[in-house]
Amino acid sequence: MIRPSLIFDLNSYIESKNIQINNELDKIIDAQNSNLISKAIRYSLMSGGKRIRPVLCIAASEAVGGEERSVLPAACALEMIHTYSLIHDDLPAIDNDSLRRGKQTCHIAFDEATAILAGDALLTLSFQVLSSIDVNRYNANTWLKVIHLISIAAGYKGMIEGQIRDISYENRHISMKKLEEMHSLKTGALIEVSVKSGAILGNGNPEQIELLQIYAKNIGLAFQITDDLLNVAGDPSVTGKGVGTDMARNKCTYPALIGISGSETYAKKLINNALKAIESFDNKSDPLRAIAMYIIERKR
Amino acid sequence: MIRPSLIFDLNSYIESKNIQINNELDKIIDAQNSNLISKAIRYSLMSGGKRIRPVLCIAASEAVGGEERSVLPAACALEMIHTYSLIHDDLPAIDNDSLRRGKQTCHIAFDEATAILAGDALLTLSFQVLSSIDVNRYNANTWLKVIHLISIAAGYKGMIEGQIRDISYENRHISMKKLEEMHSLKTGALIEVSVKSGAILGNGNPEQIELLQIYAKNIGLAFQITDDLLNVAGDPSVTGKGVGTDMARNKCTYPALIGISGSETYAKKLINNALKAIESFDNKSDPLRAIAMYIIERKR
User: Fold this and answer.
1) Exposure of A194 by Cβ count < 10 A (0-12 exposed, 13-18 middle, 19+ buried)?
2) What pLDDT score does A165 carry?
3) Which of A161, A178, A193 is nearest to A81 (CA)?
4) pLDDT category of residue A31 using cuts at 50, 70 and 90
5) Residue A260 and residue A249: Cα distance in Å, rounded?
6) Among residues A14, A219, A285, B10, which one has the fewest Cβ atoms lying within 10 Å of its Cβ?
7) How buried is A275 (Cβ within 10 angstroms: 0-12 exposed, 13-18 middle, 19+ buried)?
8) What is the rounded CA–CA span in Å between residue B57 and residue B68?
9) Is residue B4 part of a domain?
10) Partners of B266 in the beta sheet?
11) What was the pLDDT predicted at B226?
């Protein structure tokens, strides 16, 4: 297995990026405006997510020589889209979850109507942010392309189709192929487009963009497998989530299909593929390498 | 009262535009793709709406010398945003409506989860369509600006804020000022941006765009007043909606605040303002003039 340099301090990297991302998100949701929807948006958006998608977007941009500042609007928009999808997935009509990250879900803390509209508002706001760039400083064509890619990834042939399949597979035994397709739509599409947007906005060349997409596809799937593994054998005091809930819900997971050790081996293989894809990249890609390793080593 | 030329045949105009709009929408939702969400999207989007917003967008573009073809993506996106907002507003947690345009609402015809996700998908798809233009033929800066304006109008300081206020005003007596602000957000913002986008994409000059915005603001409000009037005194076999439902729901409306004849006078005044704003425009604006007249004369 390829091991990235252990010198790189991922925690500090993520921490410093999160400060930038959170500052920017804070500015966007506009502290002065205290209407109900902006309160609900703030509640869900600022509830301590790991910001994996925006960090990946920035790291991919840096990997091809781009600057953090120039991708920040895309990074924030991706986090908003992720958060809106969580708010709507938690609704009573969908997953009916009352807790997320140890806090009440949006429809419990506010009410169902507010949660539906706050999700809608976040999704809309993400496109407002993506289209608010200064066209004198940035290339409008490139941003239009990024908007297009993100809308496809988040749409009814991407993330939303994944969610629909997830619902329809409840209480059903499905094949490995179907499970993998579902995840690559439900979570993979947005993770992939996070990396791809970063690479495009950082002015990566077509070959770099393609290799980064292979990286993203592999870490996206590995991320899901470790999620499943943590649900089986994680420490709830660390994960902040219930353990065994997938099994109780009769959900089809990797451990259920190929066992715990089979899942671990598979996740490692995927991370190896991801690292191989960006082998030729220089040390500006160390954050991406460290993120790949973190994904299988994480405890939460 | 200024009266536009009666020679202009609005019905034929709307009919021919609707054929273009429906063809384009049909292509967008992709007949080949038969997943659940695309079925729900098709069901709601193709259920015989009046297509007021896209027609206004095209008519505004033509009024400043633009071509129908070049604004069609924006026109379709606006109808998609309108339809998504109806799907979500009809949900049990919001208005809990089971009928719309004489057909079952989306969450009744499908189920609640599908309706939530179909609305999300339509909203996302609207931005996909807005960002899918050919940058070799059209100006990317202009489209980025249009995306920005539409996202603001549809967002949490526009349409969504209007919906939140509408919910919070239920069973309350509110002032005329508050009623007007609520409508100008809930329905006005999207009508205004429909006209403004058309004017921008048709390459209107700043003065034309400003005058068209005044036109839009006035017809938007007049549209809402006639909606309230039809709810009091319309013919349900023509409107396809219930009569007296606002009163039964204890909703604050124009007739409730200023009476039926006061509302009629006010709507006429607004239409007069709208026609005055575009007085200096040539006969390419006849469709806009006819639409303004139609708004107060309509029976459904």
Assistant:
1) buried
2) 94
3) A193
4) low
5) 18
6) B10
7) buried
8) 9
9) no
10) none
11) 93
Domain enclosing residue B153, as ranges: 10-297
How far apart CA B25 and CA B267 sit, in angstroms, is 32
Query: Residue B242 has what pLDDT?
Result: 66
Which chain A residue lies closest to B111 (C-alpha atoms)?
A93
Measure CB to CB from residue A91 to each of B116, B131, B161 and give the nearest one.
B116
Q: What does each C-alpha distance from B107 to A234, B96, B291 come to in angstroms?
A: 37, 9, 32
CB atoms closer than 10 angstroms to residue B85? 23
Residue A239's pLDDT is 65
Spatial CA neighbour of A251 closest among A159, A169, A190, A185: A169
Q: CB distance A160–B132 less than 8 Å? A: no
Count of other CB atoms within 10 angstroms of residue A50? 13
Alpha-carbon distances of B21 from B30, B56, B65, rounded to whole Å: 14, 12, 19
Q: Are strands B99-100 and B103-104 parallel, antiparallel or unpaired?
A: antiparallel
Quick one: which of A258, A218, A215, A253 has its CA closest to A234?
A253
Chain A positions touching B168 (Cβ under 8 A) are 36
DSSP H or E stretch at residue A100: strand A99-100
Model pLDDT, residue A291? 96
Domain membership flag for residue B2 = no
Asked whether residue A48 is domain-assigned, the answer is yes
Q: Between A and B, how many residue pairs show a Cβ–Cβ distance under 8 A?
A: 141
B68-125 per-position pLDDT tens digit? 988 999 999 999 999 999 999 999 999 999 988 889 999 999 999 999 999 999 999 9
> Do A213 and A192 touch, CB atoms closer than 8 A?
yes
Q: Taking 70 as the threshold, does the pLDDT of residue B5 lie above it?
A: no
CA A104, CA B80: separation in Å to the nearest integer? Answer: 32
Does B66 reside within a domain? Answer: yes
Q: Are residues B144 and A143, on separate chains, in Cβ contact within 8 Å?
A: yes
Is it the case that residue B237 has pLDDT exceeding 80? Answer: no
b/e map of B50-82 (b: 16 or more CB within 10 Å)?
A: ebbbbbbbbbbbbbbebebebbbbbbbbbbbbb
CB contact under 8 A, B164 and A37: yes
pLDDT digits (tens, 9 = 90+) for A152-181: 999 999 999 999 999 999 888 899 999 999
Q: What does the pLDDT look like over B8-31, one tens digit per residue?
A: 899 999 999 999 999 999 999 876
The count of structural domains within chain A is 1
Q: Which residues of B touch A145 (CB under 8 A)?
A: 131
Q: What is the pLDDT of residues A229-272, one digit of tens each?
A: 998 877 767 666 666 777 777 788 999 999 999 999 999 999 99
Task: Look up the CATH number of the domain holding residue A65.
Answer: 1.10.600.10
pTM: 0.95
